[in-house]
Backbone:
């Protein structure tokens, strides 16, 4: 999201309406700065109400708080709380006031790229409207804002955290989550070629039949892994039940596999760990899909199984169910100088 209202502002200027248009932060390449955060505003008992451009931030509003938000011009609400955190139906209250309601649960224990991607898309979709993003205490909200400012506005992490604190971060744990998310983002970029290469190899080869696919996979998987490497960065796949012993987990990966096994059958956010002198480690879970059953499922074609066993005598990667944890993508990034 690039504070697109700016484009509207630029158009209005061409029409000679400049004086009517509020200058918004982030316009014409101007960096967002801490001074751009306005507030705190008073909306009854709502805590930490602040504003940056068309985005408003706060702790949990009550019905009177949402009415005050509407008075202030807010037309869209993005709620970052998990519905299980409360015992009333916020959507009914918000929509009852004529505002649009979106719920994107974010956990303070680990920021999920899927959820953050959804918030980003909503902010983009409603870029001509005033949006209120709230959680319970505005900590998660400030955490999302800090990440957003680094990734979308090019701000440094330190500056983004300063702005994030103005918009509600009070807990050091949330600042740690911001840092982890940004480290994770670098890791995800390093993984992208590996993921893409594997999927292309798999899809292409499956079109020729699983036996041909097996040959391709066997040859392609390690070289794709190698091809994705960058200086100071190693990437790969591992599993608690490997097919190729080369993919056996390194010591630091084992507790992470155990962590994901505790929450099987559901997507779980990636994790970043500190490997001290070796840098940072990143993992994200890989779950079984229908298309994986051919070679990793419980009922594998006899001839294909013979071929697999021939190529991988120590194969333990069979008998997986759809949705089950199959293994992890991992990245190790050397410390930055
Ligand atoms: C055509 C057969 C085939 C299909 C389909 C297939 N795989 Fe594999 N898979 C393999 C082979 C062969 C290897 C060993 C690759 C190597 O030598 O590194 C492997 C390795 C892996 C590994 C690395 C860890 C290990 O066990 O060595 C993971 C993780 C994995 N597959 C996940 C998947 C997922 C997820 C899917 C579905 C999206 C899938 N595979 C579909 C054949 C297949």
Residues:
């Amino acid at each position: 999201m690039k504070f697109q209202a700016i484009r509207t502002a630029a158009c209005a200027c061409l029409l000679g309406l400049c004086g009517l248009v509020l200058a918004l932060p982030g316009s014409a390449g101007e960096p967002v700065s801490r001074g751009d955060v306005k507030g705190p505003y008073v909306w009854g008992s709502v805590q930490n109400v602040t504003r940056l451009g068309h985005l408003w931030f706060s702790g949990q509003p009550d019905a009177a708080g949402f009415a005050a938000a509407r008075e202030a011009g807010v037309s869209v609400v993005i709620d970052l709380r998990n519905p299980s955190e409360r015992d009333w139906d916020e959507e009914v209250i918000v929509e009852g006031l004529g505002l649009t309601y979106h719920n994107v649960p974010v956990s303070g224990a680990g920021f999920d790229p899927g959820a953050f991607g959804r918030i980003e898309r909503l902010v983009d979709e409603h870029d001509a409207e005033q949006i209120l993003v709230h959680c319970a205490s505005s900590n998660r909200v400030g955490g999302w804002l800090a990440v957003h400012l680094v990734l979308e506005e090019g701000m440094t992490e330190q500056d983004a955290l300063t702005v994030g604190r103005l918009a509600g971060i009070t807990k050091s744990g949330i600042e740690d989550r911001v840092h982890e998310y940004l480290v994770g983002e670098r890791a995800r970029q390093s993984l992208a070629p590996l993921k893409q290469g594997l999927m292309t190899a798999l899809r292409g080869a499956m079109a020729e039949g699983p036996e041909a696919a097996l040959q391709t996979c066997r040859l392609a998987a390690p070289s794709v892994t190698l091809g994705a490497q960058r200086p100071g960065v190693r990437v790969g796949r591992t599993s608690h039940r490997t097919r190729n012993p080369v993919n056996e987990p390194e010591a630091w990966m084992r507790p992470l596999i155990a962590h994901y096994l505790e929450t099987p059958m559901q997507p779980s956010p990636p994790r970043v760990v500190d490997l001290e002198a070796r840098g940072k480690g990143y993992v994200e879970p890989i779950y079984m899909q229908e298309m994986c059953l051919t070679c990793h499922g419980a009922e594998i074609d006899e001839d294909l199984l013979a071929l697999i066993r021939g190529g991988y005598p120590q194969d333990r990667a069979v008998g997986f169910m759809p949705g089950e944890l199959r293994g992890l993508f991992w990245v190790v990034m050397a410390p930055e100088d």
